[in-house]
Design brief:
The structure is a single chain. With 440 residues, the protein is α/β, with parallel strands linked by helices. It has two domains: 87 residues, Urease, subunit C, domain 1 (Roll); 303 residues, Alpha-Beta Barrel (TIM Barrel). It is 31% helix and 20% strand. The strands form four sheets. It has an eight-stranded parallel beta sheet. Strands 3-2-7-16-19-20-21 form a seven-stranded mixed beta sheet. Strands 5-4-1-6 form a four-stranded mixed beta sheet, with no helix packed on it. A hairpin with a 2-residue loop joins strand 19 and strand 20. The protein is globular. The two termini are 36 Å apart. 54% of the residues are buried.
């Protein structure tokens, strides 16, 4: 592989400052960052004047559907969407078919990903009420996923007596989908017969989310166990965590919980349906504040594609979930350009903080010795989210028509150009992520 020289972008440095300079990449690693680098020999050169260079996004919660549900998405199409969106690494959830609840199922996914993924990949092992031995030994995994609610079949672990043994044994990170299944079931009965999609947010209400978050936190404190609370959706949870979050607990928020709310149902109906559900607009404000204050640690998309046909079935037959990897970075950078936060904060929430939380070595910063997973974005060019340009197999976005800036112009994975000005290089392959310190 010829060395790659990126000329004259604004480079985001680890201290949050920008340097107008050059960056040299060799053998997939960043080797030099300087105001000017003179090429010696045969270099591939990217003229990046006017563009901003950020670390590639690490999306720490996605559902990519392969194996088993490839009609919605597969590892190739999802990773194309990642490359277009500036996402150079992802952590994927276990609700595929077969469920990722054994070493064999994990090995199958790793093998598929090595063949099909343009970007780097890591996987969760899913908890069931019965697979504690697998949770202790499966390798490599970024963590254990517990669906406390909003799942069905073997992945649902909703009773405290089933959840507690998982916290009690081992020391691997536990990531929870925190919704109280008992309350959801009871409210489903209460609201039976109502087919307005907005009722979804009332059935799976804020209390259902808060109850489960409190239970997970209680168990994490009892066993001093590393806990990550996935897709925080409510202001009451954020305020609770502001007062009660120990140093070994992290949490995340999705762009949709920051930017969409219950009013979105009027515009896009069941396309707005997800778990945990969208909340009232006041929650958007509290979640933003918690993110800016550091109560919320980072951002994940919960990319969960379903076909338009499935979504058209009508509530409650329509499945929950929306795609996100292709739009998350421009959505957040558009917020930064509008003054809501800074570009450096966006990059910290989308690259550095997830790398730290999951102990992914040498990623998430632009620094000599680090992996050359990078994205060059254009902060001065607003373009709408267009359905025809989407790479996700599901073929829609809840943000269609939104005018965004900060779209990736180049996405670089391990020193290889995976995406360039609207074109994918489908020959590029990512690597399996390492989670150092995570091995039992
Ligand atoms: O809305 C959702 N859909 N939330 C999840 O956590 C799972 C996901 C899916 O897999 O469809």
């Amino acid at each position: 592989m010829a060395p790659l020289l990126i000329r004259s972008p604004r480079i985001l440095l680890p201290d949050g400052e920008f340097l107008l300079g050059d960056i040299l990449i060799q053998q997939g690693k960043i080797v030099q960052i300087a105001p000017e680098i003179t090429p010696s020999g045969n270099h591939t050169i990217i003229d990046a004047e006017g563009l901003t260079l950020l670390p590639g996004v690490i999306d720490p919660q996605v559902h990519f559907r392969e194996p088993g549900l490839e009609y919605k998405e597969d590892l190739f199409t999802a990773s194309c969407a990642c490359a277009r969106g500036g996402v150079t690494s992802f952590l994927e959830m276990p609700n595929t078919r077969p469920l990722t609840i054994t070493q064999a199922a994990l090995d199958q996914k790793l093998e598929l990903a090595s063949q099909k993924c343009l970007v780097n990949y890591g996987f969760f092992i899913g908890a069931t009420p019965e697979n504690l031995p697998d949770l202790l030994t499966a390798n490599p995994v970024c963590g254990i996923k517990i669906f406390m609610g909003s799942s069905h079949g073997a992945l649902l672990v909703s009773q405290e007596k089933e959840i507690e043994p998982i916290f009690a044994k081992g020391d691997r990170l536990i990531a929870v989908h925190a919704e109280d299944q008992g309350r959801i079931l009871q409210r489903r009965q209460e609201f039976k017969g109502i087919s307005e999609p907005a009722i979804h947010s009332q059935i799976q209400d804020e209390t259902a989310a808060l109850n489960a978050t409190k239970l997970a936190l209680k168990l994490s404190q009892k066993y001093q166990r590393r806990l990550h609370i996935l897709h925080l959706s409510t202001g009451i949870e954020a305020e609770f965590l502001r007062e009660n979050k120990p140093s070994w607990v992290t949490t995340e928020v999705t762009p949709q919980h920051l930017l969409l709310n219950t009013e979105t149902y009027e515009k896009i109906g069941t396309l707005a349906q997800m778990n945990p559900p969208l909340r009232s607009p006041d929650n958007n404000h509290i979640l933003w504040r918690a993110l800016l204050d550091g109560v919320i640690d980072f951002i994940a998309t919960d990319h969960a594609p379903h076909t338009l046909e499935e979504k058209a079935k009508g509530y409650p037959s329509s499945p929950s979930g929306m795609p996100g990897v292709e739009t998350s970075l421009p959505l957040m950078l558009t917020q930064a350009v509008a003054g809501k936060c800074t570009v450096s904060q966006v990059s910290s929430w989308m690259s550095n903080k997830p790398a730290e939380a999951y102990k992914i070595p040498n990623k998430g910063l632009i620094k000599p010795g680090y992996d050359a997973d990078l994205v060059l974005v254009d902060l001065d060019n607003y373009r709408p989210v267009l359905r025809e340009e989407l790479q996700t197999k599901c073929g829609w976005s809840p943000f269609e028509g939104w005018s965004l800036t900060g779209w990736p112009v180049f996405t670089i994975v391990g020193g290889n150009i995976a995406y360039e000005k609207g074109k994918l290089n489908t020959q590029v392959r990512g690597k399996a992520l390492q989670f150092s310190g995570n091995v039992q």
